[in-house]
Amino acid sequence: MGVGILNDPAVMYSGALGSCPPVCILKDNTMASLYKMPITALSGIGTKKARMFEKLGIKSVGDLLTFYPRAYEDWSNVEKINNLQYGGIYCIKAILAAPITDSVIKGGRIISRGSVYDDTGALQIVFFNNRYISGMLKSGAEYFFYGKIVSDRYSAQMVAPTFSPVSDGMKIHAIYKQTAGLVSKTISNAVKQAISLMPKNVNDPLPEQVCKTFSLCGLREAIIGIHFPKNKEQLETARKRLVTEELVVLNLGMRNLREHSRGTSGIKIKQDYSEEFEKYLPFTLTNAQKHAISDCCKDMMTKSSPMNRLVQGDVGSGKTAVAASICYTVIKNGFQAAFMAPTEILARQHYETFSQLLENTGIKIALLTGALKESEKKQIRSDLSEGKTDLVIGTHALITGKTEFKNLGIAVTDEQHRFGVAQRAKLLGKGENPHLLVMSATPIPRTLGLIIFGDLDISVIDELPPSRKPVKTVAFDSTQRSRVYGFIRQEIAAGRQAYIVCPLVEEGELDNVASAEEYAAELMLKEFSDIPVGIVHGKMKSDEKEAVMEKFAANEYSLLVATTVIEVGVDVPNASVMVIENAERFGLSQLHQLRGRVGRGSFQSYCVLISDNNSLTVRKRLEIMCSTNNGFVIADQDLKMRGPGDFFGERQHGLPQLSIADFADSKSLELSQEISDYIMLTYKDLRCDELHLLKAEIDVLFNRGGQNSLN
To answer: Concatenated DSSP letters for 327-392?
Structure first.
């Protein structure tokens, strides 16, 4: 990073986001930045060791400065040797009684032993396969030793302790991610050298006024404090500063997308037709749905820029009806609408739902997916380009170069976290700055939502239709499976249907986790040999999956065995039971999404979580599921327990990998939001002189501002 700052004589600034270099340091006009200084410039690091550093993503001295510790050992509580107990982890201050002795044991391994003492007693220290340790510890010198106390047949010993000379005065030691041949202490010594190259006066991307107002330390102090904190307070001060800056850069960047990326809309919506649309509905909209519709119509009718709005609601809250109303208004104003779903099954589901909601309105709807015949796709695209089709619902087929619109007025995307900004931009590029409505049934905590959807205004549907009954959820172990099967039979006998979900099984996984195919075959042969059982999983072809789902929706199958392919988009009101096998393998938010597949009719529905895992973490997660149907409460808990990577699945949120910040840290998220508000209120424009370093970070993060001149 560092676009536009190379003229500064002494610069260091941090973004610590993604793979971009977040620190640049220039000591004078002729010295290369530390990001251009190879790691081999440091003493003791040759070509061989440099390759080890490169495995950790460290190629330059600058990379090293923002290779933040993964953990810390607190040496602030020094214990006397006579107070040590077996199994405990302690820090002691002791003198090495005699030189370390090495001996070779079975297999050619080296074991190194020494004796240390304080004024209360003596203790043996032991190291394995460290041929250099005897030269690192000097007889008669005093050290801090930190490690676990174990016993051999003769006495207590501290095994493979970390250590530091007492003269260093360090009370908290950083622990770094390691790789073969490169231990944490070696990395720490290299970081110490890198810090010595930092200039004393460092230009800071956060203005001094911001740092003073929010009690943030300077950047140089933060870099030193995060690597070599003298106490807990210094560590917290450093961490607060670095975490806050990361989140502020991300927050402001997302806001910048919203405010400046799309300019003025060419789509003029003059009249709100939502009340007219309501007359076609066979049900009454909730107040939350009406508020969301009103928010969208106000955006489209009063703003000069296009609407950029997220409608976020729990499973079954009625987001599709909201989207249909907005599309109806846009179409009645003379424009086309496009609705993009992440899967073929979901696209077909929405096509059928929209067809019902817009029946008798005269609006022409089409379905465009990759599974269609080429001749069918060609005809649909022709109708779109000529304006004969008002609303198209589809998958990624909507954003291919072959798909053109006559006058696209609004783009709608469903399950927003499954689409990246680039995919969304491709769909918007099909018109003249059309309006954008995105929907998500994945409840996201408010503070995290402000970061992830910072380029969007947010409407929350926090009210369920009165016909929706809460799903009753229970947790069982496998010994109660026969009882569960009996209950499924009971519900099917009453005319209902049921799901059994198995986790996706990869080759080589544990034997006690059955694949969906194996499980379904066993059920067909044994417990449910007299009941029609369907199976659907991700490795089936799209048309095969759709055929099974259509039969299940038509009640030709009473029981459906599936993987999480059914997590979104399958609406079968007649289904009343959801059984989730090996429930510990799913995150809370994913379990909640699966549970949302039942309870869509007027009768009571049930979710059964089966798990033999008795760990405290798993038990707590399952207890949360059994105690609430509130998706936002569940999302908060899921985020705290697992973090955003797992929360969304495999990097589905599309955000850059953070170096030090944690999305589960709601306090830091809220502070970054507050600081971002303050910056925009105080400085008005990110392009002002006071924010030029901060703006440079944002530009690089969002790939604006041209080539990174630090590379």
So the answer is: HHHHHHTT-EEEEE-SSHHHHHHHHHHHHHHTTTTT--EEEE-TTS-HHHHHHHHHHHHHT--SEE
Q: Are 531 and 577 in contact (CB under 8 A)?
A: no
HSE-up of 157 (CA within 13 Å, CB side)? Answer: 15
Rg (CA), the chain: 30
Helix, strand and coil content of the chain, in percent to the nearest 5, comes to: 40, 20, 40
Distance of CA 342 to the CA centre of its chain: 18
> Could you give the C-alpha distances from 112 to 119, 159, 570, in angstroms and in order?
24, 10, 63
d(CA 437, CA 458): 10
pLDDT at site 148: 92
**Structure-token pair, residue 629:** 């149907």
Which pairs count as long-range contacts for 375-382, CB under 8 Å and 24+ apart, including other chains? Answer: 377/402
Look up residue 591 and give its two tokens. 């379990």
The pTM score is: 0.61
3-state SS, residue 74: strand
The string of pLDDT tens digits covering residues 190-242 is: 999 999 988 887 778 899 999 999 999 999 999 999 999 988 899 999 999 99
* Sheet-wide strand order for 559-562: 472-476, 606-610, 575-580, 497-501, 559-562, 533-536
- Burial code of 607-633, b = ≥16 C-beta within 10 A, e = fewer? bbbbbeeeeeebeebbebbeeebebbb
